[in-house]
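Record 1 of the preview.
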Amino acid sequence: RCFAVERQAEIGGSNLNVHFLVARRNPGASPTFDELEPWLNAERARRADAALVDTRRWIERQWQGQRAAYADGQPPTLMATCFAVLAEECLGTLPAWAEERRQALATSILAEQDSVSGLFAPETVRSEDCAWTSHCDPTYIRHQLTYFALSALTALQREPLHPLNFLGEFRDTRYTRGWLDAGPWDNPWNHSNRIMFLLRFLIHAGRREQDDTWMQIFDFVLDYLDERQSPRTGLWHGTAEADVRAGVFAAYHFFPFYFW
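->
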């Protein structure tokens, strides 16, 4: 009732079978655990409902004014605040917020945007945030912060104050291809995050600026991904095929943009 399946497929790996499913959510559908009882017994449904209540309470406990923390006793951060907004949206509690709270929180997030680059909270990136150098670097963290800030603002039905000027270099397809080629394709799961950030930024820039150039670059990136997609697995790998697990996580970041 809640989703309409459009197509599905299965591929097999050395130690994992992967099922792909493309489905669209039916407008207005809002499932409850009671509706799932043909598949869940009463006890499991009760536990799931209790877990949902506990999750809502835990997230509410993380709010400290217009900021949220990752966990009890931790200081609030922009990233945790964005995650909390998106969690409230996912759990269905965000629509019940008073407009005053929504506006105050949006204002708090908007204040973190750099007016020159368009990045959110670029100066808050710490050296310890980038200690896992094989996966993260300052640019990765700044793009991640900006990605989730945009998503949180969308959930709050607000727009950033400044354009994403840091995207300027991506207007040149030669630069964009070089950036895509640079990887790290030996870790497709990691690189797929970077590409996901970029695709989200391109969508935003195209909508905000009403500039077809950004959507042409968006299509260019998807064409590039088509070139790199493995005809055997349907996934994305480096020079040597990565394990299926990493390829699936990369595909998870790419596939939604093909149906955007």
